């Protein structure tokens, strides 16, 4: 039903464009050369309208079936956090935290150490959301968290729901953050499937808080701890 509505809307737009073009050519044939002035003015007006829309990040609903905000990726902070906005003006950038999911930490902070599989999740998001890529942000009940980050669901331009992809492929845990719980049950179901198939982080984790005993005894885990210890020493030296 959703896609049928989209295609009907597109068909209506195409018909309107065809009718408009037919009228336009009829007007030019009967009013040349004055029509050239009209065309020039029309192009100028359309250019300024396009600039205003693109700078605000908003697009016409007819061209935006998700009814969200279009944005451009500036950079990926970690697996579940990105920066959007202007590539050239730092004042017009916004940090966005993806809703309903939580990837293992890839960066050490005051609140959390780097976690196993955090770097893998971060690399995947960086690969899928390179700088300059257009995405669509969809909001839930609350649009900001306590850190003043924008909270959003991210869609790619082909319709892929990126929050969903991260959980489904085992790069993120499903996480419930009331009141933004629109897809909580859906994400939990996807998490259960990924866990049963041992995808991604589920090769390492029993649950979000617990690593598998076999992984903790592995050489891979020992190498992970050594890397983090060396980074802490390097940071102290700096």
Describe this structure in words.
The chain has helices at 2-31, 34-56, 118-128, 162-168, 184-196, 213-216, 219-237; strands spanning 69-78, 81-85, 93-98, 101-102, 134-138, 150-156, 173-174, 205-207, 210-211. Strands 1-2-3-6-5 form a five-stranded mixed β-barrel. It has a two-stranded antiparallel ribbon with strand order 4-7. 21% of the residues are buried. The chain starts with a helix and ends with a helix. Residues 1-8 and 58-62 have low confidence and may be disordered. It is an alpha+beta fold and 238 residues long. 45% of the residues lie in helices and 18% in strands. The chain is elongated and about 85 Å long. It has two domains: 2-56, no CATH class; 69-209, OB fold (Dihydrolipoamide Acetyltransferase, E2P), CATH 2.40.50. It has seven helices and nine strands.
Brief summary:
The chain has helices at residues 2-31, 34-56, 118-128, 162-168, 184-196, 213-216, 219-237; strands at residues 69-78, 81-85, 93-98, 101-102, 134-138, 150-156, 173-174, 205-207, 210-211. With 238 residues, the chain is of the alpha+beta class.
């Amino acid at each position: 039903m959703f896609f049928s509505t989209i295609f009907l809307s597109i068909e209506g737009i195409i018909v309107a464009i065809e009718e408009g073009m037919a009228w336009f050519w009829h007007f030019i044939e009967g009013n040349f050369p004055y029509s050239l002035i009209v065309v020039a003015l029309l192009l100028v007006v359309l250019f300024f309208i396009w600039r205003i829309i693109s700078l605000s990040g908003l697009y016409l609903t007819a061209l935006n079936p998700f009814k969200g905000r279009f944005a451009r990726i500036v950079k990926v902070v970690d697996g579940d956090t990105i920066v959007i906005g202007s590539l050239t003006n730092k004042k017009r950038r916004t940090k966005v935290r993806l809703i309903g999911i939580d990837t293992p930490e890839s960066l050490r902070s005051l609140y959390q150490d780097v976690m196993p599989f955090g770097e893998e999740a971060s690399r995947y998001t960086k690969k899928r959301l390179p700088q300059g890529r257009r995405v669509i942000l969809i909001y839930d009940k609350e649009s900001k968290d306590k850190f003043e980050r924008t909270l959003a669901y991210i869609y790619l331009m082909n319709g892929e729901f990126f929050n969903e992809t991260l959980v489904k492929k085992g790069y993120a845990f499903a996480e419930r953050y009331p009141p933004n719980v629109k897809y909580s049950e859906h994400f939990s179901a996807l998490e259960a499937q990924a866990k049963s198939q041992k995808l991604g982080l589920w090769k390492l984790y029993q649950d979000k808080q617990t690593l598998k005993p076999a992984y903790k005894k592995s050489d891979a885990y020992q190498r992970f701890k050594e890397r983090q210890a060396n980074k802490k020493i390097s940071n102290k030296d700096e």
